[in-house]
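Example 3.2
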Amino acid sequence: MDHQDLTGSKLSAALQLLPHGPQFRFIDRLSDLEPGRSGIGEYTVRDDDPYLRGHFPGEPLFPGVLLVEAAAQLAGVVAQSDPHVPPLKNLKLTALRAVKLFGTARPGEIIRVEVRELRRFENLVHAHATASINGKLVMQAELTLSGEPS
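Structure, written as tokens:
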């Protein structure tokens, strides 16, 4: 894998390929990116993340659905950074298959997300994703993203 350390402005530029605002991004750092093929990113769960107040009071847990969202965002970065294929407009998560949640994260823990693009057909991107905490698998899924040709 072609290792690229993407922090600061490079991370910011890669994340700008996504339609999400900064308040709804669940990838803080990209540690590896092979454009159009794979990527590894991390998200640190913060004590003040607003959704933790209600999920669950006194026992804050990162929602499983946000593990899937983090994976979808990383899959979008991988797909949209492919130098051989123009970025898709309005790229969105459109299908989930074989989603399994084995656990989740607590405030202060770092979620490691890994995505491998399986195939791409016109405006569809199909990827396999996993998330882990301290080396322990907490989520795996197959994702499909779709968008409009540029």
